[in-house]
Amino acid sequence: MTTTLHRQVDIAVNQHGRIRRRDFLKTISMGAAGAGLLSWPDVMSVRANDLRKRGMSCILLWMQGGPSQLETWDPKPNHANGGETKAISTSVSGIQIAENLPNVAKTMDDICLIRSMTSTEGSHPRGTYLMHTSYIPTASVKYPTLGSNVAQQLGDPNSDLPGFVRVGARFRGGSGAGFLGVDYDPFNVASAGRPPENSTLPTPEKRYTRRLGLLDKLESHYGENGGEREVEDHRKLYEKTSRMVKSPKMQAFDLSEESQSVRSGYGQSQFANGCLLARRLVETGVTFVEVTAGNWDTHQDNFERSKQLCEQIDNPFAHLVSDLRERGLLDKTLVVCMGEFGRTPRINARGGRDHYPRAFSVAMAGGNVKGGQVIGRTDPSGSNVEDRQVGVKDLFRTIYHGLGIDPEHENMSGIGRPIKLVDEGEVIKEVFA
């Protein structure tokens, strides 16, 4: 009977990999539901298992500080706002990007550019929060970050490694699991060039196990006197950490296992190491990896600083996409490159560009993304979106869609209100093949 019901659940999943309660009730007989053979949580469990079997993952390349779209994906060489940045041809006829990204230009067949992004938030904290959660910050709700939501939906709860790994930065406020809880908080790796901090056992394993037993006893008293939640969260962290540090899969963090030719292909920068680590982690089963490059806050000396920053990301980004393709991982790995906003088209008195959320760009590859295309357009000055405006919620719906996740999925918040992964917005269907 269970097998039959599971088959019926599959029928209720639409062509986009989504399942809704109304579709389920149309497919499953009311008699079976009334008999309690398969509850709604069971249905969602079946759905989650189906998603996990697909093995989808996501790599977010986070350009902290807000990269200038005019020095990266949307140059304006024929306008005064373009400044000294020239445009170069790419591997796709008719698509040009800034001269600062020559290696990425060679892989444009795999990359989709969205040049018509727009946002309402022009400060770093609020822009970072919005571009990580699809929600503006509020005092009452701590929304989960993108990586936490993806880890919850796609991650294997029994995996030795965390479902969400963040490389190269520790954000403050609004960058973790929020009301999803500690199970989906990111595992932070300060530097990809060396093993994670405190990731080796401090004592022989038997002694370590005895210490954990003692800790459990010490916490029990506190838990029995009003600290149940804190103790539960603490035990979860220790359980996950203990399983991780004792696992042979921790070798995924050791870049020295890669050949010199592979490491040279990515380059020698911290961001290059982060991209290589991201590939190793998704190859090992990690669901979401975020790698940070910064600081793109070019209020002065924009052209030289942007050139230097692009030199740090150009080869690693291009090589990551190529490496994933060569290993057969690109179709199952969605790669997104973005920052919190763009930079002003008008150059300021210090030769810099200021914050500009009105019109900026995002690059995507892998995960069924149709490469070799540009979606949207800004006007000749770069000041306004003049075709196919894409909001932050649209982008998030598109990312979830590409991973097979239903953006309408609701989680219960700490204030007792169900909250969708994304509230409003629409999928940018042109992104996908």
Which features does this protein show?
alpha/beta; 9-stranded mixed beta sheet; 433 residues; 2 domains; Alkaline Phosphatase, subunit A; two-stranded antiparallel sheet; disordered N terminus; single chain; 13 helices
Written description of the protein model:
The chain is α/β, with parallel strands linked by helices. The chain folds into 2 domains: 2-49; 57-195 and 267-431, Alkaline Phosphatase, subunit A (3-Layer(aba) Sandwich). Helix content is 36%, strand content 15%. It contains 13 helices and 17 strands. It has helices at 2-12, 21-27, 30-34, 40-54, 102-106, 124-133, 146-154, 205-223, 228-245, 260-266, 270-284, 302-326, 392-403, and strands at 57-63, 87-89, 96-98, 111-118, 164-167, 187-189, 288-293, 333-338, 342-343, 355-356, 360-365, 373-375, 377-378, 385-387, 390-391, 410-412, 418-420. The strands form 5 sheets. Strands 1, 4, 5, 6, 7, 8, 11, 12 and 15 form a 9-stranded mixed sheet that branches. A two-stranded antiparallel ribbon has the order 2-3. The protein has a two-stranded antiparallel ribbon with strand order 9-10. A hairpin with a 6-residue loop joins strand 13 (377-378) and strand 14 (385-387). Helix 8 (205-223) runs antiparallel to helix 9 (228-245). The radius of gyration is 23 Å and the shape is globular. Residues 1-35 have low confidence and may be disordered.
